[in-house]
Predict the 3D structure of the following.
Amino acid sequence: MTAEVVGGVETAPSTVVSRGRMARLRELAPFVPAGLLLGVLFFAPLAVMLVFSFWQTNANLDIVPTWTLDNYATFFQTSAYLRTLAKTVIMGGAVTAICLVVAFAIAYFLARYVSRRWARIALLVVIVPFWSSYLLRVYSWQAILGEKGALNQLLMGLGLISEPSRLFVYNDIGTFIVLTYVYLPFAILVLYASLERFDYTQLTAAQDLGASPSRAFRHVLLPQIRPGLITAAIFVFIPILGEFLTPSMVGGASGLLIANLIQTFFKNALVPQGAALGFLIVAFVTVLLIIFRRYLRVEDVYARG
Amino acid sequence: MARDVDPLETMPVSRYAGPTRWGLRVIFFLLILFLYLPIVFMVAFSFDESSTPSLPIQGPTLHWYDVMIHNRQLLTAVQNTVSVSLIVAVLATIIGTMAAFVLVRGRLRYPNGIRIVFTLPIMVPGVLIGIALLVFFSRAFHANLSLMTVIAGQLVVTVPFVVLIVASRLQSFDRKLEWAAADLGASPRRTLRHVVLPLIAPAILAGALICITLSIDEFVITWFTVGNQPTLPTYIYTKVKFGVTPEVNAVATVMLVATLLIFGVASIVLGRATRRTSRKRAATPG
Amino acid sequence: MTGFDQGYSRRTFLRLTGALGTTAALGGVVAACNVVGSGAKTTGTFNWMTWGDHWIQTQLDKIAKDVNISTNISELSGNAEGYAKLKEVKGQLDKMSADAMWVPNAYFKDGLVEPFDINSLKVSSQLYSFAREFPYWQAAGGGYMAYPFGWSPIMIYYDPAKVTGNPTDWQVLLDPKYKGRIVVENQPEEIVAYMARAAGIDKPYDLTDDQLTTVKGYLEKLKPNVLKFAQQATDSVAAMVSGEAWLITGNIGNEDRVKDGGGPEIKGYVPSEGTVGWHDGEMIVKEGANKSLILPFLEQSQQAELIAENFLVNGRPLFNEKAYKILTDQGKKDQADRYLYGKAGDVLPKVVLKGPGTSTDKSIKLFNDIFGGG
C-alpha cells in the first residue's frame, strides 16, 4: 500500500487513519482514564481551592465565604514574594541547565557506548538510591558539606584549605548542590529514553558529507532529541518551583524559595492565603509555557518522511 | 546475534572518539560517586551509636537494626509504601502510556494545550493538591481515607510524568516502521504490540521508574489522603517534635540492599533466559 | 529481530513477575485498609491520631492483651494539619492529640471533640492537681476537654565554650557576635511569637500592628544570625554536635541529646522575658465510632509506670505526679529534675501556650516578608 500524499505532506496509509464517529471515539478511548483522573481528582478539587483562595479565614481558622482579593494582592504588595519568585526561577534555571548538561553526557554515554542490557542496569543503579527517604539523604548531605563535614576534612587533608569552609551548605550553594542531586536522575532517565533510539549512523553519514563532529552533533543530533530535552527541562524546572524541603534544610536563613512561603501559610491553617499564592505560581508558569510554546511543539518529526 | 554490540564501536569515526569515550566513562563514574556519596553516609549512620546523624561516627553497633525489627509500625509502613509504589507505578504507566498515544497520534485539536494541561499537576504545590483531595474525598465522595485514596492522590501527580515522557518518545518515533509492518500484513494491534511498544519501552521504563521514585517518598499528598495506615514517609516526616532515630537509616539500608539484590537476581535470570532463547533459535533450523 | 526473540522470554518473565508483584501488593493494600470498627462497647479497636512520642509499642501491646483494647495509630505532623484533617474525616478517628490552645480555640469551638468528666477516671488522681484544672480546658457546660499528657517550653541552649557571659534572656540571639551560629526550629509562627516575647509582649499570638512593627525590628536582627531552620530536633542537635551552631532553640532535653551524639556539654535555660511553649493532651472525637473505648484506654495508658517509661524514652516532662515518684525510686530523680519534671507549676506561668491567635495571618506575612527573597 502506498502512502497518500495530501497537500505535500505524507500521511499514513488508510488502514491507520480511521473514519466515522465510532471509530473516532475508539481512537480517543485510551485517553479516558487519564482524562477522568485529572478531571475528577485534579481539576474539580482545585476548582474548590480556587474558590477558597478568594475567601478568608476568620479568627477561628475556619474558611468563611467572604470574597476578597487580598490574598492575591499580598503577592504584589510585599516585595519579598516577587524577589523570592525571581530567586526561585533563577535557581531553577541554573539547576536545570547543569542537570541537562550532565544528564546528556551520561545518557549519551549509556545510549551509545554501552550495550542495552548494561545500560538498563546502569539506569537502575542510578535511580535506586532515590528510593530512600529524602530526609535521610539531606541529613547525609549536611554531614558531608558542613563545617566539620567530610568535604571540609578532605579539602583540609589535601591541604587545599587551612580551616573549614562554611561555604558549601546553608546557603544558595547548598541548595544548588542538593537540588541538582535530587533532579539529576530524572533528567538522565528522560534523556536516555530519548537518545536510546537515535540512529547514530546519521552522525557518521553527516561526517562523510563533510561536517565536523560538533556540527553533526549540533545540526543532526540535537534537533532530533529536542522533545526529550524539553521534557527533561520540564521535569527538573517545574518541580523545583514547588521545592520547600531542600531550601529550608540546606538553604540557610536567606535561602527560602517561593514554595517555603506558601508552606508557612498552610502550616498555620491559613488555607486561602496559601492557595492564592500557589495559584499565582501556577499562573506564572503557565504563562511561561504559553510564551515558549513554540519550543514545545508536538510535531511529528518523522511524519514528513 | 546474542549480544547487541554497537557496530559503531568497530568503525573508526573522528579522532576525538577515543578521548571522548574515556571522558564520558570518567564522567559516568564521577556521577555514580556523586549519587552514592550521601547513601554511603546514610548507611554509615545506621551503625552509629548516637541517635543523631553526625560525624564522627561512634560505634559501630547493630542496635538500630534490632530496634527496627521490633518496630511494628515502621515495618508496616515499609510494607504499605512498597505496595503503594508498585501499584501506583503500574497504574500510572498504563494510564499514562495510553493517554500519550492519543496525545501524539490522536489528531487532537490543541495538542500543545493538552500538554500544558498535563504539566499542571506538576506545577501545583503538593500541599494544595493534598488539602483539595482531602476536602473532596470527604465531602464529595464521603469516602473513608485509606491506602486506596492515597493511590488515587499519587496517581494525579505521577501520570503526567509518564504522559510527557512517553509522548516525547512517541513524537520522534519513525512511523515508517509501522507502515512497513502494515505492508507486511500486520494488523494495527500486532504492529502496536510487536513494533511500537518494544521500541518505546525505554520511555515506558523511565516513566515507571520515575513513578516509583516519586511515590516512595511522597509525603504531603499522602498525609492528607491516608487513613490509619502508616507509610514510610509519614512515619519519618511526622517526627517533628523530637526527631527521627537511626532505625529509619537501618530500614533504608535494608531496602537499598534488598532492591539492589532483587535487580541483580532479575538481570541474571533475564540474561540467562535471553541466552537460552537465542541459543534455541540459533539451534533450530530456519 | 533480536528484539523479538529476546522479547518473548523476557516479556513472559516480566509479565509473570509483574502480575505476582501487583497481586501481592494489592493484597497487602486491601488487607491494610482495615475497616473502621463499629459500636464496640468496652473492647475493640479505635483510631488515634497523635505524635510519635505519645505511645510505645510494647505498652500498647500489653494494654491490648490486658483489656482487649487496641488502637490504629496515624501520625500527626502539626496542629494545623491535624485540625484540617479531623474537620474532614470526623468519625474515622476516635481519639486526637493536640496542643493546649488548639483544643479550645479550634477543636472544641468547632464541636469536633467532646468533653468528659476527668475525675471519673481513677488514673487522673495521679496527675498534678493543676493539670486537672486548666481553666482553658474547662468546658462551659461542664467537663474537661482533654486529658493532659506532656509539656515543654521553648528554651535556648548554648555551648558555654563558645558563648560567654552566661546568657539568661532572648537578647543573646540578636547579638551580632553570633552571626550564622544559631539554629532555630522551622516554625515561623513560633519564631515570631518568641521574638514578641523577647520584646516583652504578653500576647504573642494576638499582636497589634504596633507590636508587629516592634517584632519586625527583632526579626531583622535575628535573620543574619540564623544558620538554618531545623526540620526536626535531630537537625538542631546535629548542628550543635558538629559545632556549627553555638545556640539553638528547642524543646526540653537537648542537652542529653547533644551529649549522646558526641557533642559538647551544653546548657539550657528558659529566657527571663518569658517564652512560648506547649503542653498537649488527648481528646475524644465527638463523632468517633469507637469513642467509648477511649476512657477505658486512658485508664490503662496513663498509669504512672507507663508514663515513667515514656519519660525515659522520649525525654520531656509529663503531668503524671506519681510517675515522678517512680522515677525517683528508680534513681532517675536527677534526670527528671533537669527536665523540669516537677517544676511545671513554676515554669508554665512564664510560658505562653502556642495556638491559633488573632494575628496569625499578619505574623506569617511578617515572617515571609523578613525571611523571603534572600
Q: What stands out?
A: Chain C has 15 helices and twelve strands. The interface with chain A takes residues 78, 80-81, 83-84, 105-106, 109-110, 180, 186-189, 223-224, 226-229, 231, 234-235, 238, 242-244, 356-358, 360-361, 364-365, 367-374 of chain C (CB under 8 Å). Residues 1-8, 34-40 of chain C have pLDDT under 50 and may be disordered.
